[in-house]
Amino acid sequence: MKPALICALVACLLLQFAGLALFAKGMFPYKVILPGLASDEVDAPKVFDKLIFVVIDALRSDFVFSAQSNMTFLHQLIISGCALPLTAYSTPPTVTLPRLKGLTTGSVPNFLDAVLNIAESDTSSTLATQDSWLAQARRAGKRIHMFGDDTWIKLFPDFFAAADGTTSFFVSDFTEVDNNVTRHLDTELSPSAEWDFLVLHYLGLDHIGHKSGPQSVHMPAKQAEMDDILRRIYQYADSNPETLVVLCGDHGMNSVGNHGGSSEGETSAAMVFMSPLLQKLDTALEWPAAPISGQFQFYKTIDQSDLVPTISSLLGFPIPHNSLGHFIEELLPLWSNLEDQRAVLLSNANELARLMKSTFSGFSKSSKPGDMYCVYESLPTASFYTISRFISQCQSELSSVSSNYNMNYMLCGLIFAVIALGAAVYMYLSHVYTTFSRFDSLSFALFCVLFGAAMFGSSFVEEEHWIWYWIGSLLILCYIVQCAANGNTNDAVLLTIVLGIFRILRRWNQSGQKYAGSDDIAKYLAQDSAFLFTVNCATYGLFLLIVWRYIYFKNMPGMLDAASASIVTFTIFTFKVSMAIALGEEVPTIVVEVLEDLGLHAVQPTLVQLARYSYFFIAMTIVYALFMYKTQMGSLTELGKRQKQFDFVHGLVGITALGLSIQSRYSNIPVWGLFYILYSILYQVKGLSNSSKMIICLILGRSSFFAFGNSNSLSSIDLSNSYNGIDSYSVILVGLLTFIGTYAGPIFWSISVSSLGLTMDEEDAYIILSVLVHSTEAICVCLACFFLRSHLFIWTVFSPKLLYASVWEIIQQPFFDIGLVAVTWRIVSSI
Q1: Residue 93 lies in a domain
Q2: What CDD domains does the database record attribute to this sequence (predicted)?
């Protein structure tokens, strides 16, 4: 690459990074909150003295309320009237950190908390200085004990008289993470226990969802375990009627067990109030319950923020500042005096009115009858219905207020992004456009325009995979017609096979929102364990042949070459099968028995070792291939060198696919075999120019991201392979493995394109094409977020897309689409 081009490329990347960073800083500022603690106590006697607050992470409503639920003791409490069941709406982003903020302060958390959620060392999201029901309890001298997810300790430093935190991110652990909480119950529920508030946060159910989904074979047993814990807790409350027990989920989960998005399953969490005093409400309900609407809306649906004024009022605390919650009116009869009930609602209304005054400058200036301020002034003598309606209106108005965008940062970010796009277009026109055929130039320009325009439509962002599938299918079809018209029948046949495989990849995993959870090839294979195992055996058999033929063959004496190739592939295959067994996926019984006979039990220590061996063997195979081919090239003829180069590039691509399969789900392993076949066919098609192959690889790189089931929703981030080879949480290692697992497809095609025999100018051209695609995405996504910042789906669709675009531009682009391509090309071309 020429120095001038390098300078232009570096400048373009820096402008991209600066633009995205400035735009994100303007779009995701920290939320402005009212300082201090509320001091206006509820003018009604408290109902309870003590609170046991139980959070079961990812407790979706149907896990508790549906006929399939295994929480039998809790069902009896509902039927007897000792429990009030509710479905609590969890505001996106549905991840733990922002949801705990909502459950404790009653406010709408910042979207940026979804990013901070993964950084365990982050302290910028602390609630130490914000008002919450825990802050009110601490000010009142209450002793608070906490056991479970250490996110609580990060949010509320020095709040707890006793605490034992467990990391929430080691999702491979289903049992110990909960046992570490339960082991404290005997002490905490004894008559001599010294606490006023007891917080318990269980993580195992969420971990099961991440690893094997809501239908996992581990789920019923975990529900029964949680139900038994609730039985023990309720027995304490039954003997101490001044104790209120609250059970809730911080969020739900989607059909594959993940969360972070806005689907009904992710936003529908269970919430249950439990106490023998609730029998006076005379609200005994039936179980099992039928959904009132949708699939997960059982009983009455409330907002999670409604918990905050409800707990505060029941325990006699001031309602925290910044709370947008509405007292749960079904609990009002716990006060037998109507004036006390009125006082509870008025306190709720007064706190919301303060927020309205601080948020809307014109709120207290309205004077027309029917205006909210006039209604507020009449509340002391108004009916219960009027007070309740005023609270609901305030809640609606305050919840819909947009973020306090910093327009200066956003505009500066847009300017940098526009300049970056201009630099990318300049590089394309000056170094690429003139070397491409007219068809390739037009097709590339067309898909850039279509891709960029699609970023302004919420449905297109949600279903972005269809853009790449449509473009890819149409382009390959055009190349088929082109080859046939030129008389290259063999190439036309090969590209027809490419089109067929591409069609299979489209159906392998459903992506997006519209058809999320629908049937696909991966689900079909998962239902037939023998067939899936056979297909996976065939896939790893293919890789065994590739590693043996292209890397070890004739480079080792005797049968050592076959043995070496077998060790590499067998170790990885054994790890993936053992992991599938541990996750409760169906594997033929004979396979399970064989693994047990070999001592390869599907338990955490064995899985960690198998994963580490897999990584080690992959690394050693790559090093061996590099060493052998580098040392042997000098003694070969020109024909021999070409053969060695052919062997090396095919071996390198094969070992890359084999290594990346470690970070894929068991049902997605066959995709790697299809990817390798696609690469091999493209390598053999001689009727296509390298520029055409580069464009196809670009499209395959993007579409492969979605082929594994990813989407532009945070909920599609798959953590099931983020702990392979790790026995404790590390934000760097987990982040790296999560990235590799999510972007494994694009990483594969970054290596593949550089192994197609490109010249130096063609390698430069591919990098420029990639940069232009990324620059187009950056500016279009930023513009969409800017102009649609008041859109209904700004936080559920466009903001997550901005985060994904940032990862594409800041990580995938420089390290893989540019760095890995350049390094691989230089290795290949030097042999």
Answers
A1: yes
A2: GPI_EPT_2 (cd16024)
